[in-house]
Design brief:
Radius of gyration: 22 Å
Shape: elongated
Oligomer: single chain
Order of helices and strands: HHHHH
Amino acid sequence: MQLGFGAAMRHAHAGLSILDFPKAYGHWWPQIHKADLPALNVERTEVLHMPPTTLGQIHLQMGHRLMAGLIFLGVVGAAVIVWRRRALLPAGLRWLGLGWPVVLAAQITLGIYTIWTQKAADVATAHVAVGATSLVWGVILYAAVRRWSAVPAFAPSAIEQPAGVAA
C-alpha cells in the first residue's frame, strides 16, 4: 500500500502538496478546505513558483505520511521480537530482523529531507530507491523466517527429543 501511495503521489505530482514537516500547514492534520485552495494555489504559483495542488493531493500525501508511521511501528515491533528471541535465531535472521528498522529509518529520513529540500532530485531518488530496498528487505526476511520455521530441526514447535533420548 505504501508504495502505491508513493507512486500515486509521484505521478499526481503531489509530493510537495504539503511543504512543511512534521506538521501540515501548521497543524498535525491539515485544516485545508475547498474554499482555502484558491488562495493557497495563488501563493504556490505566484510566490513559490510551484504547481497548484488539490485536496486530494494533500490527503494523498497525508496518507503516505500516516502509512509510513504505521509501517515503522510494525517493523520496530518485529525487531523487538527478534531481539527478545535472538538466542533462538540463526545469525542471518537476527541481522535481517534488526537491520530492517535501520533501513526504514533511513527511508523516513529521506522522505523528510525530500520535503525540506523541496524535492531535490538526488534526495527524492534516494527516497524511492531506499523505499524499494526496504520492501525487498521485508520480503527476504519474511521468506527466510518461513523457510527457517519450516525446517523441522529449527521449527519453534519441534522441541521434541529424538526417539530413545531421555529428557
